[in-house]
Design a protein that fits this description.
heterodimer; A: alpha+beta; 5 domains; B: BirA Bifunctional Protein, domain 2; 2 domains; seven-stranded mixed sheet; aminoacyl-trna synthetase (chain B); tRNA binding (chain B)
Chain lengths: ~650, ~350
């Protein structure tokens, strides 16, 4: 969330010699991130990012508090001129208090941590004074009239949203705050009908009509219009969880609701109401016409934290003088005093007791929170930079192997001319069916953005085939023939059944797809095996070559990556060198798939040839039609063999 | 016979054809040598021997001249122009994905200061993605992290099954694996969030650093970030921390790095720097590990402290190389892939 405030408005609260640009720069380094400063007329508008735990600084006064702590660290003067939070309290309210009354009832006290209201009579609806409407417009809020603008002005000034009702439209002058029932309807200020999911905080009047979707938007039926005479100023803090739930369920979100859903300080309600009364008296000529209704069942006690001074140095890494710690915390509104002495050493001995200001009780809970306050205001840029001492931590071998081998195979395939692709882990139902797989056996995303990425893939091939298809029309710069793609990624194998599930097995696979030809792909796989010294020819049964799948002229293969690692030999088995001759003989065969007798294939020939212990290697010389010429290398590590011995061996093939 | 004449004649021959004409002219059956030999009958007897020797010598010499000339002519003929500016023999050039390069580079940078790369699940329970990171169920911070859910029954204790929206689920797992600090982890993995627009893809990569030891402070986090920034983005790159809020760290920071285009001043050649606008580029989130996160990992926060960060791989690639159309990363487009 972002809010805008103006420089002149800030100066109402803060006495400083810092320029708007300095304020932007210094606050951003040590506190709220001021994303932009823009000159508007003779004023400047700050655009400020509000992080989720710091709703307390989303106001002019909140920024003044931050500036009071941060700017002095840069040698700038910064002091509150007057602290409105202290200045405005219920004791200031004087006037005729019994002209109008309200019947207030809160059915469930947990809905609203503090409820206040007051009636102001005889307001004169008209335009706001210039400074109010100009400031609101500069901050991105429409100026409507003096009464409505007052509540928006209060919200930006003090960070507490305010609602105003037309008193005379509240039937029976009765306000009953309760939980909504499911399906109840309310027409809100923007003339839209909202159907409520139930359990929302709402208010009904004496006639049973809903007049407010509390914390989010008022009802149209009781809103301020040109004829409004008497006004109810309505300031509360609500159960933040309910507000959030309602905005999420109904989709109705307002600036007020973004405040309330983060949890506001009930103590802030009092000064806000009193300041609001002052503004309405001044700029709408209203008069106080009722007593103050204040229902505050559980006033928060003081929140105290005790911690050792030593902890600051330990967690920040440098010693920050005690005096500096105290001044930073005090300027932020914390109370600091010496805490009880603990322990024997000096480090543990000196403690401080920090009392947390009411507007920070939600976000300050542990000593680390206090350390953050001190460290950030002291300035992260003032903290030195030094690497932690080196230590040895052992990397599990299986993790190391996974990364080392992935890198090795990627580099190797790149050098063979293949292109690595990274695809989404999710694929479509159609892609699964194309490979005759069952979508039901896959893990499915329940909130997928698109049918294209609905299922967690159990194979890399559907993605690779899609890559080949989508690229086939594209002209690449590399003139190498065809497309040759690979991917190393996880597949996700579900574990469990419909009722009980474990996390899926996540298994790395290597997938390769080409649109060249069968022998190209087979050659790539063989090359990988050779690179890893996997003797796939002899260990045929242990780790065979994977099956090559053909789909519309594209060839694909998928290998379990871990088994490549498991079967790899860093250095191949060494064969001792010998001085004996190698005899090379060529022979031509006719390969054929004869059904009646055994087919003649390269594999069959090889199997027969390997029966001779003298055979060292076989090479394919040529293949012309079905005439296959092979070259056989015969040799013995023990003695010179004669050509006759070699021919004998070959004749048996 | 005039030696100068035949020598000149042979040496001025330009082609093998001309030379064979000359061969016939001198050495042929009716050639000049044979003509000279046939005239031997007219030579007086006592001079016949000397005459014959001279003619034979001449024959040998002409033969030699022709042979030499043949070699020269045939060599000249084969010497066509050789263009050395032509490219060499073409070898295949494949490619590795730009994300793989970045992962490798980052792994090595952290390896040098003793960080080990680990591998943890991409599909995890809500516990791993949230509860173990100080984000209890129902906490609004969980809304900020949009999450992809898996359509299976929830685990009775660990919540729904999710695709990890960040690499931080590795924190709790690494603490439980190592049990006793020190911890020096770098976890690089795919992450998933239901966002798909010009600047987001539903899958992306993060790298997560985690350092836990008896005496780890903000000084050490700064040291590590400065080290990484200089090694990855180049010498002289600075970092800065700004206050922020994350549930799993306290204090929490956002890290910026100084812009290498303008040198961190926000102005380039007198104009506003187009890369960074302010001199700094946002890198990501970091902080000191929250005591609750340590506790949940079985580590005593009163005796240990640590820092953690999680940055986007695509983001650092974008910052370093300016590859800003992230949708190309995972489109599988060969025109993108083949460039790296």
């Amino acid at each position: 969330m972002n809010i805008k405030i103006t420089h002149n408005w800030l100066l109402d609260y803060l006495d400083t010699d810092a320029t708007p640009d300095q304020i932007r720069e210094y606050l951003s380094l040590c506190g709220p991130s001021v994303e932009n400063v823009e000159k508007v007329g003779d004023d400047y508008v700050f655009d400020i990012e509000v992080i989720s735990n710091r709703i307390d600084y989303a106001s002019v006064i909140g920024m003044a508090q931050e500036a009071q702590a941060i700017l002095p660290m840069f040698g700038k003067k910064a002091k509150f001129r007057e602290n409105s939070l202290e200045k405005y309290n219920f004791k200031n309210i004087v006037g005729n208090k019994n002209l109008c009354s309200l019947q207030v009832k809160i059915i469930n006290p947990t809905l609203c941590s503090r409820f206040t209201a007051i009636v102001i009579e005889n307001v004169r609806i008209g335009p706001s004074p210039k400074f109010i409407s100009e400031r609101l417009v500069a901050c991105g809020i429409k100026s409507i009239n003096n009464v409505v603008d007052t509540s928006n002005y209060l919200m930006l000034a003090l960070g507490q949203p305010v609602h105003t009702f037309d008193y005379d439209q509240i039937k029976g002058a009765t306000m009953i705050m309760r939980e909504s029932k499911k399906g109840e309807k309310i027409i809100t200020l923007d003339k839209k009908e909202v159907t409520l999911p139930g359990g929302d905080i709402v208010m009904e009047d004496g006639s049973g009509r809903l007049i407010d979707l509390c914390g989010i938007m008022g009802g149209l039926n009781s809103s301020i219009n040109e004829k409004t005479k008497n006004v109810v100023v309505f300031v509360q803090t609500y159960d933040k969880v309910r507000i959030r739930r309602t905005t999420m369920a109904t989709g109705v979100r307002t600036i007020a609701s973004t405040f309330f859903e983060k949890g506001l300080d009930p103590e802030r309600v009092e000064p806000t109401l009193v300041y609001g009364v002052e503004l309405l008296e001044k700029y709408a000529q209203g008069k106080i016409a009722s007593k103050i209704y204040d229902i505050y069942p559980k006033k928060q006690g003081k929140k105290l934290l005790v911690m050792s001074y030593g902890l600051f140095g330990k967690k920040i890494g440098i010693e920050i003088p005690k005096k500096k710690i105290v001044s930073i915390l005090t300027n932020l509104g914390f109370g600091v005093s010496d805490g009880p002495k603990q322990g024997q050493t000096l480090l543990e001995g000196l403690t401080l007791q920090v009392s947390v200001p009411s507007w920070r009780v939600n976000d300050i809970n542990i000593p680390e929170d206090i350390i953050e306050e001190v460290a950030r205001v002291y300035g992260y840029h003032n903290i030195p930079s030094k690497l932690q001492p080196a230590v040895y931590v052992e990397q599990p071998k299986e993790m190391e192997n996974l990364f080392v081998f992935q890198n090795r195979i990627k580099t190797f395939l790149k050098h063979l001319g293949l292109n690595e692709v990274i695809n989404y882990s999710m694929i479509s139902e159609d892609q699964i069916k194309e490979f005759n797989l069952d979508p039901k056996k896959h893990l499915r995303l329940s909130n997928s953005l698109s049918k294209d990425i609905e299922y967690l893939r159990m194979s890399l091939l559907p993605s690779l085939l899609k890559n080949i298809k989508e690229n086939s029309g594209k002209t690449k710069y590399n003139s190498a023939p065809g497309l040759r793609l690979f991917e190393i990624a996880k597949v996700y194998i579900p574990v469990g059944n419909k009722n009980i599930c474990s996390l899926p097995q996540e298994i790395y696979r290597l997938g390769i797809a080409v649109n060249t030809d069968y022998s190209d792909l087979k050659g790539i796989i063989e090359a990988i095996y050779k690179e890893l010294n996997i003797n796939f020819e002899e260990n045929k049964n242990i780790f065979p070559l994977p099956e090559i799948i053909e789909k519309s002229g594209n060839y694909m293969v998928e290998v379990d990556f871990q088994s490549l690692i498991d079967n790899c030999q860093l250095v191949p088995k060494y064969k001792s060198l010998h001085p004996y001759a190698i005899i090379k003989l060529d022979k031509t065969f006719e390969v054929r798939a004869d059904i009646k007798t055994a087919p003649t294939t390269y594999a069959g020939i090889k199997q027969k040839a390997l029966k001779s212990k003298l055979l060292q290697n076989i090479e394919v010389v040529t293949l012309y039609k079905n005439k296959l010429t092979l070259r056989f290398y015969y040799s013995s590590p023990e003695k010179n063999i004669t050509e006759e011995e070699a021919k004998d061996a070959l004749n048996k093939v | 016979m005039d030696q100068k004449k035949y020598e000149l004649e042979i040496n001025s021959a330009k082609t093998l054809d001309e030379l064979s004409q000359l061969e016939i002219k001198y050495l042929g059956r009716n050639g000049q040598i044979n003509k000279l030999l046939s005239e031997i009958k007219n030579v007086p007897n006592e001079e016949k021997r000397e005459y014959g020797q001279k003619v034979n010598l001449l024959k040998t010499e002409i033969k030699k001249y022709i042979e030499i000339r043949k070699l020269i002519v045939s060599k000249e003929k084969s010497e066509v122009f050789f263009d050395k500016t032509l490219p060499g023999k073409a070898y295949p050039k494949g490619s590795i994905h730009i994300v793989s390069y970045a992962i490798e580079e980052i792994t090595k940078i952290f390896e040098k200061i003793g960080f080990i790369r680990v591998s943890y699940p991409e599909v995890d329970w809500e516990y791993g993605a949230f509860e173990s990171l100080n984000m209890p169920s129902g906490h609004p911070a969980r809304d900020d992290v949009e999450t992809s859910f898996i359509d299976v029954p929830a685990h009775p204790n660990l919540g729904k099954m999710v695709l990890t929206p960040h690499t931080s689920n590795g924190q709790n797992r690494e603490m439980k694996r190592v049990k006793t600090p020190p911890i020096r982890m770098i976890n690089i993995s795919k992450c998933y969030r239901p966002n798909w627009d010009p600047t987001h893809t539903p899958m992306f990569h993060q790298f997560e650093g985690l350092c836990v030891d008896s005496d780890i402070s903000i000084v050490n986090l700064r040291g590590t970030l400065d080290y990484f920034a200089e090694k990855y983005f180049g010498k002289g790159t600075k970092t800065r921390l700004r206050p922020h809020h994350f549930q799993f760290t306290e204090p929490s920071f956002e890290v910026d790095i100084s812009c290498n285009n303008c040198g961190g001043i926000g102005k380039y050649k007198g104009e506003k720097c187009r890369v960074c606008k302010s001199g700094w580029l946002e890198l990501g989130g970091t902080g000191m590990v929250h005591p609750n996160v340590l506790r949940e990992g079985g580590i005593d926060p009163s005796a240990n402290s640590g820092w953690a960060f999680g940055f986007g791989i695509e983001r650092v690639i974008m910052m370093k190389y300016g590859l800003d159309d992230i949708r190309n990363y995972y489109s599988g487009d060969i025109r993108f892939l083949e460039q790296f």
